[in-house]
Design brief:
single chain, 2 domains, three-stranded parallel beta sheet, 13 helices, 3 strands, 54% helix, binds zinc ion, RNase H type-1 domain-containing protein, RNaseH-like_sf, RNase_H-like_dom_plant
């Protein structure tokens, strides 16, 4: 696959993780270790797909296009997205999604990322079924895909779409890019006995400054005896995800993250909040930075 090719650009998308890109490369070049591929190399195994009640031979086409799980998932996203299933080849099917004409840059982004996420989650469900013996329901897989899509969208565009489901999300992205959604954002106090720490690193998007601010905050809390039962609010989604181990910590802040984990010690809850609900911390951080 040439770096300049269309497929290459879809697969090595900057918003996708490396393992997902590598998986897609193997899928599109039919190099996933499935029963039919192993059979072609002389490994004769009793072949049985793990996605259907009715037994079928596992193949690329079956797993990603025709199986019960995959059909349900594609229909869930495709029926609202305006795509009907009428092709017989995985690659053609995926290209159909990637080339779907759309009206906005954000929607184009969604349709670039989504087919890959769908394939990735179908593969994960398949591996869970094969190696752990637990079969996931289509609704579970759809929810997992939808949540990951929303997270990626948020990191890319910095918008929190309060869409509860896929049709609503699509409507928000597609039809009403300038629509105003009223959502009350304010700071909420904790119940008695719990302490809330709001942090702000005064640098948009840089998890390093946020991590330093958090570490300082935790140290201050510990000195004052508020160590346990603490709720930390940050408007940095990146930092929150790092602390929840949902994404990898950049090496430059490994030391801070390590110290934070030590101080937090499992009794600390990390919550993401809107910037508007973090105003006091934001103002203080700005005051702090002007006095350096
Ligand atoms: Zn099947």
């Amino acid at each position: 696959m040439k770096p300049s090719s269309f497929l290459f650009r879809q697969i090595w998308h900057s918003s996708l993780s490396l393992k997902v890109s590598i998986f897609m490369l193997r899928l599109l070049s039919n190099r996933l270790s499935m029963d039919n591929v192993l059979a072609a190399h002389g490994f004769q195994l009793p072949s049985k797909c793990s996605c259907c009640l009715v037994s079928s031979t596992e193949s690329l086409r079956h797993l990603f296009l025709e199986g019960e799980l995959t059909t349900a998932v594609w229909q869930f996203f495709g029926s609202v997205g305006g795509l009907a299933m009428n092709v017989g080849h995985v690659r053609v099917w995926l290209i159909g999604w990637w080339l779907k004409p759309v009206r906005s840059e954000k929607l184009q982004f969604v349709f670039q990322i989504l087919p890959t996420l769908i394939c990735w989650h179908i593969w994960k469900a398949r591996c869970t079924a094969v190696f752990q013996g637990s079969v996931q329901r289509p609704t579970e897989v759809c929810q997992a895909i939808f949540h990951e899509l929303k997270d990626i969208f948020l990191l890319k565009f910095g918008e929190v779409h309060r869409a509860l489901d896929w049709p609503m999300f699509l409507e928000l992205v597609e039809c009403r890019p300038d629509a105003v959604f009223v959502h009350q954002v304010r700071w909420f106090a904790q119940s008695i006995g719990r302490v809330k720490l709001n942090i702000d690193g005064c640098s948009k998007g840089d998890p390093g400054a946020e991590a330093k601010a958090l570490l300082l905050g935790l140290q201050m809390c510990a000195q004052r005896g508020f160590g346990g039962n603490l709720v930390v609010e940050t408007d940095s989604l990146m930092l929150q995800r790092i602390l929840l181990k949902q994404c990898q910590s950049p090496w430059s802040i490994n030391v801070e993250v390590g110290k934070i984990e030590l101080l937090a010690g499992g009794s600390c809850q990390f919550v993401h909040c809107y910037r508007e609900a973090n105003k006091v911390a934001d103002v203080l951080a700005n005051v702090g930075s002007t006095h350096h």
